[in-house]
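Why do we care about 3D structure at all? Because function follows from shape, and shape follows, mostly, from sequence. That is the central idea of this module. The next example makes it concrete: a single protein chain, its amino acid sequence, and then its structure expressed as tokens.
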Amino acid sequence: MSLADKVVFVTGAGQGMGRSIVEYFGAQGAKVAAADINADAAGAAVAGFGANGLALACNVADPASVSAAFAAVAERFGSLDVLINSAGIGSVDAFLDTPDDNWTRVIGVNLTGTFLCCREGARLMQRSGAKGAIINVSSTAAMSGEGPSHYCASKAGVMGLTRSIARELAASGIRVNTIVPGPTNTPMMAGIPDEWMQSMIKAIPLGRMCEPEEIARVAGFLASDGASFITGQNIAVNGGMAFI
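And the structure:
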């Protein structure tokens, strides 16, 4: 199940799950393109990777930015084996008070951004003949409805997107799966009111939040040959708080 020398593109690579995923794949000997809207954070994620690292400033909600990022990967590494869409944002808005701009922004990053990266990533995989793996990141909130409406809707959309493109890309040998985390110890969670966070933790049978490294290890499995017959699936990593 070696990941050595695989070319991996990770969005949201500057912090949280994305940063842990970059570090995990780098430790396994992969060639990692770390993409983040914050160029400095992307650079810090692959610091020390040498020729195996590529830092990219990328706004996943902008088609031109996404196209440029994948073109840079093609120029540097020549192919793509693994795409991991971990970029995501949220906003604490009650449904009736949700500003239009916040709805558009969250859907734009979480859902449209995943679509744009999947499309460009699959095109690069097909051009290079790679039987690759695409791993999207959703959320348990997509099933429970616990969370702001735009966040829940965007993460539910990611699941539907995964199922659709998994069927279409199977003929090319490209597998597409979704990791569905529960509450995870990331900077995004730091912005949630403590009362809300404690309520979520109480609903987790294992009694704690997930750590980003635990998400990274699941991503590593889904990207490996050990998951060669798994596609179109939602893999829950939520401590038992919800069953898919």
